[in-house]
């Protein structure tokens, strides 16, 4: 991430510290699976669960080894007993760890984006209802068209954001398993998804032109 263009919350997700922590999370999960079949002692798993990764130590080893994953394993091993370290990375390749950890990072980032979209939708919804009677010129082919309302324009933006949020919805599930993660509802990007379970802009009320004409919000 480019720091000057990155919000602190997203920057923390893609920081080197969090990346290494996700690698360790994968290593621990694999060790737990081995322990369940009797291949790794639970005492070693407990040590791995308590272990942390020192970023500076990782950088020191990476400068020597020129291999980020091997440097990570060396840094983690420094925090373990020799016996527990001997079970670290058992049966794994570098990209078994890195690809799985990347899926976890993408899921974490998608969750943050979903929260931001929800906050944006709330703000747009509020303004759509506030301006349901605010008249403005419609647009078609780059020129003025029939009058409409600014509230309706905002309601359409809200509906578009809702569809974007639905497309993002598969993101929090780790996407490392395969294709088709865009969540598109139909074959054409402009096709509306089914409304079942989707969000709806609340009605402005029985009166005041809601849902009826250019001044209403559908």
Walk me through the structure.
This protein is mainly α and 218 residues long. The protein has two domains: 3-92, Fumarase C, Chain B, domain 1, CATH 1.10.275.10; 111-218. The chain is 54% helix and 6% strand. The chain is built from eight helices and two strands, in the order αααααααββα. The protein has helices spanning 8-13, 16-36, 42-50, 55-65, 68-77, 82-85, 94-130, 150-168, and strands spanning 135-140, 143-149. A two-stranded antiparallel ribbon has the order 1-2. α4 packs across α5 (68-77). The radius of gyration is 25 Å and the shape is elongated. The two termini are 40 Å apart. Mean pLDDT is 84; it is low at 177-198 and 204-218.
Tell how many strands the DSSP assignment holds.
Answer: 2
- Distance from N terminus to C terminus (CA atoms, Å) equals 40 Å
Could you tell me the radius of gyration in angstroms?
A: 25 Å
Order of helices and strands: HHHHHHHEEH
Can you list the strand order of the major beta sheet? 1-2
Characterize the biggest β-sheet.
2 strands, antiparallel
Shape: elongated
Mean pLDDT: 84
Helix content: 40-55%
Number of domains: 2
Q: How much strand content do the residues show?
A: 5-15%
Low-confidence stretches: 177-198, 204-218
Instruction: Report the structural category.
Output: mainly alpha
Figure out the total of helices: 8
């Amino acid at each position: 991430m480019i720091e000057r263009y990155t919000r602190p919350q997203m920057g923390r997700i893609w920081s080197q510290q969090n990346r290494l922590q996700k690698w360790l999370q994968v290593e621990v999960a694999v060790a737990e699976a081995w322990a369940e079949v009797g291949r790794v002692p639970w005492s070693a798993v407990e040590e791995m669960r308590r272990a942390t990764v020192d970023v500076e130590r990782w950088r020191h080893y990476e400068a020597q080894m020129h291999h980020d994953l091997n440097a990570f394993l060396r840094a983690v091993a420094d925090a373990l007993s020799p016996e527990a370290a001997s079970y670290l990375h058992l049966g794994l390749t570098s990209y078994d760890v890195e690809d799985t950890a990347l899926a976890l990072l993408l899921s974490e980032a998608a969750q943050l984006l979903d929260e931001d979209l929800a906050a944006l939708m709330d703000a747009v919804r509020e303004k759509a209802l506030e301006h349901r009677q605010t008249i403005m010129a419609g647009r078609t082919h780059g020129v003025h068209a029939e009058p409409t309302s600014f509230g309706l324009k905002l309601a359409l933006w809200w509906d578009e954001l809702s569809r974007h949020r639905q497309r993002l919805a598969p993101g929090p599930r780790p996407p490392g398993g395969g294709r088709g993660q865009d969540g598109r509802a139909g074959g054409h990007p402009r096709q509306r998804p089914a409304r079942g379970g989707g969000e709806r802009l609340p009605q402005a009320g029985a009166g005041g032109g809601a849902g009826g004409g250019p001044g209403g919000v559908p």
